[in-house]
Amino acid sequence: MSLSGHEEPWHQWREAQAGPRMHHAWLLAGKRGLGKMHFALAAARELVAETGVSQPQGQHPDIHILTHLPKDDKEERKREEGKPFELKRNISIAQIRAMQQRLNTRPTLGSRRAIIIDPSDDLEKGASNALLKSLEEPPQGTYFLLVAHRPARLLPTIRSRCRVLRFPTLSAAEMARIVAKEMPQADEATRKAAISAAGGAPGAALDFVSRDLGKLNLLMEQIAREGDPNFILRGRLADAMGARPDRGRVLASLDLARSVLGGMAADCRADQIEPMVEAHAELIALSGQAPTYNFDAGLLVMQIGTLLASAAGPRDRFNV
């Protein structure tokens, strides 16, 4: 099933498949939450399927997926028990080396195999360098699909060896339709906040709704409007975030804070413009660092609140 916004990527992919020489490496680029991994899996199955060869319904022996592993043995046991578990921040060089060992053998069911790396922009430096060697000299019948939320983080030499498939963001109307269909239990205010924060990425919007970020959104808007001279609102923001928020909730809160400032920009006072722009820039920088840096979640939430408070303008400048 093709997701909304995937029509052009599918057109380009199938046109390439029908051509005389399929490119061996593809970069699936776009915001988080656009369904790029969904596309990668479906495209890989099309790629490795051969006429007259029965294809398994579940895991495919010729489709290899490299993604974040559990953080440690304790988290691995949680995964085996079906419990929530914490992931490593990066895809390691050991994972790339293990994949390269498999490339020394022939595909299992046909003449092609696919390697999916999700997200490729979370490769360790050593892993990126190791992957580059495979991209430079790909084994016959091997195709790479690199999912990337932030393609600029990839080595330029990796990007240059890939054909890029860009995944567009969706309109507000299409986002509203998807969220209403998938999350009918959510109230209207929560849906609107999620759609605004997701910036055209339906998967991100659904994630926001599932994480129940409505209270966070209201507090962030209040802090950005009024400031927080007594740190009371920032304390409430930390309480609403939770004592031990997982990385996904923290990243979602950063996107939400950026959305709050973006939504207020058109109606802000003249003396708010400069501090709002500065706060938004700082939030963008934090959003880029947070997925890979080992931040203390509590301190990061307070920093988000402080940046929002600074956007309230000069009246709060000396209390943030």
Description of the structure:
It is built from 14 helices and five strands. It is an alpha/beta fold and about 325 residues long. The chain has two domains: about 5-165, Rossmann fold (3-Layer(aba) Sandwich), CATH 3.40.50; about 210-320. Strands 2-3-4-1-5 form a five-stranded parallel sheet, sandwiched between helices. Strand 3, helix 5 (about 125-135) and strand 4 (about 140-150) form a beta-alpha-beta unit. The radius of gyration is 22 Å and the shape is elongated. Mean pLDDT is about 90; it is low at about 315-320. This is DNA polymerase III subunit delta. Pfam families: DNA_pol3_delta2. It comes from Allopontixanthobacter confluentis.
* CATH fold node name of the largest domain: Rossmann fold
Strand content: 5-15%
Coarse shape:
elongated
Secondary structure tally: strands: 5
- The CATH superfamily of the largest domain appears as P-loop containing nucleotide triphosphate hydrolases
Straight-line distance between termini: 49 Å
Summed up, the domain count is 2
| Sheet of most strands | 5 strands, parallel
Structural Rg: 22 Å
SSE string, helix = H, strand = E?
A: HEHEHHEHEHEHHHHHHHH
Helical segment count: 14
Low-confidence segments, ≥5 residues, pLDDT <50? 316-320
Please state the average pLDDT score.
89
CATH class of the largest domain: Alpha Beta
Q: Which strands sit side by side, in order, in the main sheet?
A: 2-3-4-1-5
CATH architecture of the largest domain: 3-Layer(aba) Sandwich
| Helical amount | 40-55%
Judged by helices, strands and strand pairing, the structural class is alpha/beta
GO biological process, one term: DNA-templated DNA replication
Protein name: DNA polymerase III subunit delta
InterPro entries: DNA_Rep/Repair_Clamp_Loader, P-loop_NTPase
